[in-house]
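REQUEST FORM: STRUCTURE PREDICTION
Request ID: SP-0412
Submitted by: Lab K.M.
Chain count: 1
Length (residues): 189
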Amino acid sequence: MRTLTYFVATSLDGFIADPKGGYGDFLFEGDHLTAQVEEYPDTLPAQAREAMGIDAPNQHFDTVLMGRATYQVPDGLPSPYPHLRQYVASTRLNTTPDDVEVVADPLAKVRELKAEPGDSGIWLCGGGRLAAALLPEIDELMLKIHPIVLGKGIPLFAGEFPTARFAKASTRIFDSGVVFASYAKADVG
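STATUS: Completed
RESULT:
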């Protein structure tokens, strides 16, 4: 069964980017990055994969969904993840100049993608408002918690959303201070 995983870096105080959408304060060196490269090569943008000489097959995901601001990050690539099917959720964009498909109703799109055959995952890579809108469909949270406090910025989940409960699946602490914390959607009964 296909699942939706919110795999994202966050600060200790729950921000995925600074107020302007930048992420320069996050750690880009260290043993946590080595683990991400080895275990989640599919989550690296094309530019990083090329610079690092990574030609590894996708291990977890065949599809990525991102918010408009994540897709249009300053100095970003027009097609950041060409090794995945790419979707950008936006009501402002109509088209993109590349192979990224624009979707106006991300909740319906995720439900359609989850209904497809196979077991490759769907990666929600960013957008606090998008994450809040998709919270009912998020099956797993994979948080890369960086040892920084931003104080303000784009929150992990932004806007109004229903309470959701998750159960701890795993935790890994790296020498860099980054923690990978994984949570699975909890059965509410």
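NOTES: Residues 4 and 122 are 5 Å apart (CA to CA).
Reviewed by: T.R.
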